[in-house]
Amino acid sequence: MEGAVRTAVIGVGRFGINHANTYKSMPNVELVGIADLNAQAVNRATSQLGCPGFTDPAQLLGRVDAVSIAVPAIFHRDAALPFLQSGVHILMEKPLAVTYEESLDLINLAERAGVIFQVGHLERFSAGVMALSQRLQNPRFFEVHRLCKFAERAMDVDVILDLMIHDIDIVLSLTRSPVVDVAASGAPVLTNHVDIANARLEFANGAVANVTASRVSNKSHRRIRVFDLDHYYGLDYGGEALEVVSARRRTSGEGVEFTRERIDVEARPPLRAELEAFIDSVRTGKPPLVTGRDGLEAVRVAGIIKEKIRNERFTAGALSPAFG
């Protein structure tokens, strides 16, 4: 593609504004405009960004080459449809959609349209996660915690689609093996959806992942620990160092010795890296790092976790009178 890539952002809440500001700062990228059904949100965004704003996203058709869609997940399909039909490349904020069926429909539409369709799993572009992915050889066990304070955001979905899906996607990308068994538990605390959940994923290659997500914790804590053959890796998401512990047999043949290493990673805004990768795919046609099929698999596994929790809660509810 020659010249500046013409971009727009659909949905200008907190995430959408960040996308728009980033596009505006990128070389050879033109922020054509933003759109949101909320007129007040449009006015705030246009005054901040200095670009045209619309309450009807269809007004951007014919003016853009690529868009970020950052509306609530329940509206993802409706927001994407006119742009897919017009051959516009899309970066869709995660989750891809709220159900596997809607997600699959989106992927089929995107593949028929022949467009770049990237899913916004932002953590994949963290410098620490990239450093981890380059070093892992045969991961056997994952322990992942994503605990956040309660915030009035993403109330249209549960904590699995809101937060845990980041780690589902990361673990899937690191194991590169199909999920063969899932166990899960969780509960609503402050909303009508599940707010805290734990899942155990078993993979065909023998790897196991224990993943916990909460949006009702009193402090934020985001960390992944991975046990590889003879290695342990620890990473705080957003941190600037990867902790590595290596084990090897002593030369005498008796016992094991451990070496510890801190690998500094270059701090870089993940959103900037994500959008640069998206624009590069739009220009070159090469597949994005996080494809629509990657996003689809994350939603599929999330759906299994949700179903396991739903069944557990139903069973517990049915049995509770016997213990009352």
Question: Would you kindly provide a written description of the structure presented here, covering whatever features stand out?
Answer:
With about 325 residues, the chain is of the alpha/beta class. It has two domains: about 140 residues, Rossmann fold; about 160 residues, Dihydrodipicolinate Reductase, domain 2, CATH 3.30.360. Helices cover about 35% and strands about 30% of the residues. The protein has eight helices and 14 strands. Strand 2, helix 2 and strand 3 form a beta-alpha-beta unit. Helix 4 packs antiparallel against helix 8. The chain is globular and about 70 Å long.
The percent range for helix content is 25-40%
Total domain modules: 2
| CATH homologous superfamily descriptor of the largest domain | Dihydrodipicolinate Reductase, domain 2
Low-confidence stretches: 317-324
**How many β-strand stretches?**
14
Examine the secondary-structure arrangement and name the CATH architecture of the largest domain.
2-Layer Sandwich
What's the CATH first level of the largest domain? Answer: Alpha Beta
